[in-house]
Amino acid sequence: MESTELDSTLTESAIRESGLITLSLTVTPVLSYALAHNRINVVGRVGVDNRGPAVREAVLRLEVISAGDTLGTARDLLVDLAAERTATFTDVSLTVDPAAMLLINEQRPAEIRASLLVGGAVVATTGEPIQLLAAQQWIARPVDLALEMLSAHVLPNHPEVAVLLGEAAAALEARTGSAAMPGYQSGPDRVDQVAEAVFVAMRARGIRYATPPASWADDGQTVRTPGEVLGTAADGIASGGVGTCLDTVVVMAAALEQAGLHPLLWVVAGHAFLGYWREEETLGAPALTDVAEVINLIDLDLIRLVETTQVTDRGAGTPVTFAQAQPSPYLEWLANLDTVIGVVDVVQARRTHILPLPARTVTADGTVIVTEYRPDAGTADAPGGDVPGAHPAPDTQASTAETESTEPTSTARVTPPRISQWKNALLDLSLRNRLINFTERGALALTVPDRHLADVEDLVTGGTGLTLLPADRMSTTDKERGIRFGRDLPVDQLAAVLADKKAVYADVTDTAYATKLRALAYKARTVVQETGANNLYLAFGSLVWTVNDRELRSPLVLVPVLLEPAGRGGDYRVRLDESGASTPNYCLLEKLRQQHGLTIEGLANPAGDAGHVDAAGIDLAAAFRATREALLAAGLPYRVEETLDLSILQFAKFRLWKDLDENWQTLAGNSLVNHLVHTPTQPFVDPVPLPEAADLDALGAECPVPGDSSQLAAVAEAIAERTFVLEGPPGTGKSQTITNLLTRAVYEGKKVLFVAEKRAALQVVQARLNEVGMGPFALDLHDKASKPAAVRAQIRQALEHEVTVDGQGLKNDLDVLGTARRSLARYTDRLHEQNSAGLSFYSARTAQLAADDDVRPLPVPADLPARLTADELAELRRMLRDLPDVTDPARPRPQHPWAFITTPPAAPLDLATVTRAALELDDALAALPRADETAGPDAKAAPAHVVAAGVVAAAASPTELVTLSSLAAADRVPLATLDGTRTPDWAAAAQAAEQATTAFVQAEHPAFGVLEPGALRLEAASLHRDAQAADASGFFGRRGRRKAVLARLAAELQPGAKLSLGSLSTVTGQLADSQAQLDALRTRVRAVDGVSIADDWNPLLAGAETGQTGRDELAARLAWLRWAGGVVASEHRDLGDDFVAALRDYLDAGTQPDAALSAALGRALLALQAVMTATGAGPAAVAGWAADGGLVAVWSRGRDERDVQAPGLPTLTRWIALLEHLEPLTRLGLTAAHTAVLRGEVDAEDAGLAFEKGLATASVAERGAATTLDQFDAAAQNRSITRFTTSSGAVRRHLPTFIPYSVLRRRTIGATDAAGETAGNAEATARLGLLKRQVDRQRGGMGVRELMHEFGDLITDILPCMLMSPESVARFFPAQAGLFDIVVFDEASQVRVSDAVGAMGRARSVVVVGDSKQMPPTSFAESTIGSGEEHGDSLEFVRDEESILSECVQAQVPSKWLSWHYRSQDESLIAFSNRAYYRDRLSSFPAPHHGVDAAGSDADAAPTGSAGYGVSLRRVDGQFLRSGKGKTLRTNPVEAQAIVAEIVARFAADPEGVPSIGVITFNVQQRALIEGSLRDSGDDRIVHALESEADGLFVKNLENVQGDERDTILFSTAFSADASGRLPLNFGPLNLPGGERRLNVAITRARRQVIVFSSFDPEDLRAEETISAGVKDLRAYLDLAAGGADGLASPLRQSGALDRHREEIAEALRERGFAVQTDVGLSDFRVDLSVATAGAPGHPVMAVLLDGPIWAARRTVSDRDGLPVEVLSRLMGWPAVERLWLPEWLGDQGAVLDSLDEKLTALDAARQARESAALA
């Protein structure tokens, strides 16, 4: 749809009245002081339905209205609304001012109101009614949010709580001998004692009981403070307060929290009671309404309850004891769970940032003291550790015997706190650790006949599998004998089963066997995948001992095993994990050493002198004997039992702990480790300096895997050995980046360590290294591959590896690639290279299109954009912006009275001089004839006067006035004569006359040798006759007669000249000839019309009056005639036509000169000159000013406005101010624009727009010429792209041989010289020989650790890339600083800091790759494996820990960002996460399909089993089973069956292949149910797909799906409404702090499709009633799944500006009948034009990409011209992707459209053919 904007014609009132925009609102229905104090957002979502045009920069106002006023401050948000769309805003946040809420003293109604303002006016509004609670009031609605907020009323910060804890400490000391309150460090019994002491202390206060309200939901209660409940205890005398059940619960909870315990608040109908954790756990959510799980925890004695009303005076009789107060809540209130409202976990609430309210106390003098809750800063480094703000009671000390530390007591080194913290995280020696406290619930007990335990160990370590039999699988004979279980069989029979069947009985019934063993195998496999370490062990033997009077059982010897089914439907068996080794329980040994100083050398070092190792492994009998002897020697009454258990034990952490404990000083040599240890709060300073900016295009050509610019920038930084964080959201190519990084690092001779917890992550990188030829240089030491035989095989393969390379072919392809790349880069530079005005070819064109059609462009010189500086441009823009300020007072127009002044004066004007000159001009002009004046008494003069007045009025310039004055003073020449002067004949005659005159003058006249030219006045002929006669006369008369003739010539003789009488006749003859010539000349001159000469005209003689010669007079006359003839001609250059016409009339009307007019005009001209001189005006400016109306009239009309006698000449000063303001226009050459402004032709308000329009137009031409884009060749450009992509692929095909070849050439170890001899020094050669002998051994030989310690340097030379887990690094490599140049962590968000330190410390630089918006490392309370079958898997407690990624981010390590997302083949798959978690920073690619199945149908309506795209919701009528027994507990069988049916159908639809499907569940029970159902489906392909590590089928829960991806993800929410029809808001781990990160992981696993199976509708999920970000995001995601992309929450502001160039093309295509959408996409990468044909408008077939600024801003040629086209066409499935270049479009739009039309027509024909074929 073409974009539209709200324009000025659609007013705010029109919008309001038309109802084009409506609002909807979802809010929290109850507001409380607790909500306000904790800054909880009370608005869930705002919907804005806009049925009109687009609206930009509207204001969305949110406010709480109470009693007609806004409570606190309204929240204003700027929003953009798309045309005819509904926008849903979820990122709004309205919090209430706590100070305002504190003042509310009673419950009252209010309203949350949303308003939309456009232009400051409200155009739409809506409101939702709410209830405001009194400041301390609590009410149980909405129930989830109310329960979460109840923890805010638990005030450990209240001063009276500290006093109470002091009293409790005294009671504790009196009862137990110790006042210590060590939290959970001393076990659950001490926890009970502390809780009892608090109970006793409260009871001693004499608290009076108050009856609670009848209904928590209807009435609520004002919660009393600890001071009000406890009263005071002055001088040991208790003065009790008063409290309800709820009051006493929150007070006792506050005391327990302050004591370091984890209290629970239970709220039931009409009552409340307390619970507390006996172990350091939490519920995982701040509050739960579904408490069935928690009841199980009570049954398991992990939680105990307390009836706190028993501390009051409620009831008569003897006060009950603490022990009596514990069972009553369970018996009285939990028998019927329907009465339970919920339970609140206070500590988990604190972790979710629900903080206690400020405690207010009043001193005796009335001073109010506010005590704020201050979280303990010391816990900031230990997420999941002690609760912030939970401080021990005052004056208490923890005894050394009762506290536990993992720090050895004998160490002499001062260990930094951070090192101690990491060590504690690695080695948990508390009773939570199953290696210390090995409970029955945590193990599967195996029955072994007496004295045969060592046989089992020998059997397993010898490589024979051990089959596990169900405990009740008895023969008929045994059953008849009454034997029900294997453990009851005789010893010899059990021994026979072991010997013959290689089997033992497991403590699990046949009914539960498959479920239990399948679940255990899955968990063990998951641990390996997640951590790279196998934690499944056979535990041989147990030490039974005590800690703090608590009996414990701890395993002694651990043998790593694998659990696998013996066959389909058969038994399970365990076999030795060859990658591990039998080992003592070092955790137990360390605990014994710390607790008792006991060292058991025979157990600790079974291979040492005191140890005992037999042929198959550890000699168990000897090890047990050594243990017993050590215990006896130490006098410890502990015993060793010969037991056998199968269990998942976190033993791998011990190796990491030991590595850190022994080597932390070495490891801290790494700069990052040192920073994290000593200066984690300061910015990290990398010791490696920043490298020069890399040529990413060149680097891309050298990388074997295609990479975008963000990936290549990371590679460049890494190979420079810089330490940094690389944030890579899902699908951004982290593995590709790592592959390029590892390859380039190895190529440059570096040693690289790649570390990943998950096997899957390593396998991806390993597969890619194999693809690019680098596999032989990478050693896999992760888990399975770390078997000695496998390691030796890898080393041997690396030593034998050879490769050949096509060097010439690579060079040629590199040359072609470089040429094409440079060509494409030049085009980008040229297209977007800015001129001096800041405009490029592209931006100038878009500016042209953006300009208002109604605004006339200012004329801008063509060369201005190139020569304009930034300062000059800014000056122009400022000038035009401020133009109205000077034009408004000056009022510029063509005939402004001062408009003849066009340039500002160089110096300030002399206003007095201007005034005098102007007044004189007024008078002078007034004296000129005017048409409205009478001619006087002489009527005959009237016509002449009128004509004269007319020509005066027509004169519009000084030139015209001068012309008129000249003609008026001159003799009149007939107009015909003047007109004749312009004819050829006259011109010829005049020219002939002039030429003849000139010839006469220039001719030789001998007579004038002695005579003056004036002699020509004489009668030369007569003189000559007389002279001749004298010559002819006689001798005597001749002389006299000659003298007579001479006398007549005497006056003309030249001075000093003498004329002899003898030559007289000669001279007169010559004179006569000259005179004859003159007469002929005169005749010719007189023949020229308009020329009259005197009879004595002599061209040789100057006139007495003029002083000119006759020739000069003639020339002047002819010139005047020509001039006069010219000025009376039409279209004169300097004279107006009107003036010429009037002048002709004037000349035609008179025959005599008009001296009076000439004189008057002379005066006027003098006055005008004076004005011009005084003002600096020029003649041309005056002429232009007076052109319309004549100078006299224009000047006269402005007389009043000019008002020259006004003080200060205001009109003139304003005009001068305008000229001065416009000075930049003239200075910069914009003279036409300057004139237009002065003439008033430019609207001052639009002057800036007019200039920008003119500048854009000029810039298009200037840029086109300057960059030669005006000669652009589109075909050549497209050929360059083809060459680039083709040669890129060709080069990349060379690299898998060229890079290995280069690495091998540089290898010195094992290389041979030209003679075939091994190169290198003798020692290295010898060691290499030893290594080769080791790797060639088939049996025996060194283990992996021994190989690495002995030959590590050689091996890392041969295999410079190591692929490992953190545990395998500590296991195999010595702690040596700088062992590797670079360590790269993958999936670092799941690598604990403590796990990562060892790997970091072995390298010089660190690259931490991960996604901080995905799951952190998670620790689970170890799962139960017990034999019971009634409960299924028990609740798993989840605790998030700090990752190396988040640690580095917090420690301000520099970071880089991968920005291109490639995984999702439908953009909606990543759009939610991009918006919700990545701030729209990811660039994803639109697809032509969206939400459709493979056949093109709507995915929501697609049948089961059909593949599709996008996110969809599949609603099922399932029920989540919250209670009951069996394997379906806490599952949704209907939903599970729907998912199984979907998978079965997809497998059936693809009989040849294996569909790529992943199933993700919220909990482990649903996961187990779905996987079990799939395994029982009867389809071997499905079972095989589940077992395979290939891209097939998986079923996982939220916690372990990170790193996986599949084409289709089936998401099972499982949860449903409860019996009351209400959906509880407990979604397991999603409710945890950071639960949204788990959701992010789950919803970003799909490549093509996500189907969310849900047993509830999105609107059933009342996300506004909880603070859980995970639940809120789930609701938003379900909206997306239900509504498609339209359900995606809208950003407040729309991205990007309107691209007019794009819209112009779109409109042209629409005019040709195509369906076009512009700016298509859900990220910052957009398809500029999505085009569909008229036959199928809903199915786009062509993506058109333009070359705009966003395209140009991409950092590499590949990002611009390679990657997008390839991804869109190959991955996203666009049938056609076209590039359209701006110069091509401007050059020939018709040709471009014709080409697109032709291609679209062909695509449509192909579509029709496919449809026809499908129908056939």
From TrEMBL:
The keyword Oxidoreductase does not apply. One of its GO terms (molecular function) is ATP binding. Residues 375-417 are annotated as: Disordered. Keywords: ATP-binding, Helicase, Hydrolase, Nucleotide-binding. Residues 708-803 form the DNA2/NAM7 helicase helicase domain. Pfam families: AAA_11, AAA_12, DUF4011, MTES_1575. Residues 1703-1800 form the Restriction endonuclease type II-like domain. Residues 1442-1654 form the DNA2/NAM7 helicase-like C-terminal domain. InterPro entries: Coronavir_polyprotein_1ab, DNA2/NAM7-like_C, DNA2/NAM7_AAA_11, DUF4011, P-loop_NTPase, Restrct_endonuc-II-like_dom, SF1_C_Upf1. The keyword Nucleotide-binding applies. Residues 396-412 have a biased composition (Low complexity). PANTHER family: DNA-BINDING PROTEIN SMUBP-2, DNA2/NAM7 HELICASE FAMILY MEMBER. Belongs to the DNA2/NAM7 helicase family. This is DUF4011 domain-containing protein. It comes from Cryobacterium lactosi.
